Amino acid sequence: MMNSSKATELHGDDLPDPEEEKRLAKAARDANRLPELRLVLLGWRWPGKSLTGNTILGREEFHLERASEFSVKRETEVDGRKVTIVDTPGWFSAQTTPASYREEMLRSVSMCSPGPHAFLLVIPVGMFTETDRARIEENVALFGDDVWKHTLVVFTWAEVLRDRSIERHIRREGRELQWVVDKCKKRYHVINNHIFGEHPQLPLLMERIEKMVAEEGGIFRTQTGENTPQSAAPAKANSENLNPNTVKEERDLGARPKKNCSFSSLRAMDVDPPQSPMVEGVSD
């Protein structure tokens, strides 16, 4: 019979070496590292989508004071590589997304040629309903079935979770939210948009995006193999014909977290789709 000291010795030898695990993890990250990342933000008009873009950029570029009908591109450098972010028009909770918004959402693909590495589907932590799931399915479907392989859920309003894990939150919300997470192959990330600058949440997000790109064999491309959908052309023409002063005003607006506002109160503010080139109200 093996004595206890010998058994303990063998058991100790079987334990993984923490330093070796760190080395292997770093090697995997280095192997997946991309010199450039191109990201498209998708989601509702409620605060969270544009703020997520600002958190990644590390500065206030996408605005909340007004909701834009047009996709907007911004660029920055994160951890030594170029990052391009395209913020799309936020869709509505209780209404079908206007055709002009859908055109602009599709145009986002051509704005980060040769194609986005990832779509970040921004979902605020809070009550998630069957209508929310239906709106996600309706809008994400515009890009074709393959888009889900390149989509990662980003949960915002992380402070609402407090001590509860995101996994517990997903289970508690039930099958509707679980359906979305499953469609994205259980790829998700929690982000706190009140934290700017040096913070582990951004490097971890980038690692998860790079891992997804590696697993899916590259960037997203439309089903035709082209990244300029024909249906996006009219919306592009409209955005290029905007009054220059209107465009400048949009670019000058900064995004700031809304204070003392709740998820339910923002839902109540959902109104009919705007008709003017620049929309007053709550963004994304």
Task: Kindly describe this structure.
There is one protein chain. Helices cover 40% and strands 15% of the residues. With 284 residues, it is of the alpha/beta class. The chain has a single domain (35-267), classed as P-loop containing nucleotide triphosphate hydrolases (Rossmann fold), CATH 3.40.50. Helix 4 (99-110) crosses helix 9 (233-240). The longest helix is centred in the last third of the chain and has 16 residues, at 201-216. The model is unreliable at 225-283 (pLDDT under 50).
How are the secondary structure elements laid out?
Elements: H1 4-14, H2 18-32, E1 36-43, H3 49-57, E2 66-68, E3 72-78, E4 81-87, H4 99-110, E5 118-124, H5 130-140, E6 151-156, H6 166-173, H7 175-183, E7 188-190, H8 201-216, H9 233-240, H10 244-252, H11 263-268, E8 278-280
Parallel strand pairs: 1-4, 1-5, 5-6, 6-7
Antiparallel strand pairs: 2-8, 3-4
Helix pairs in contact: 4-9, 5-7
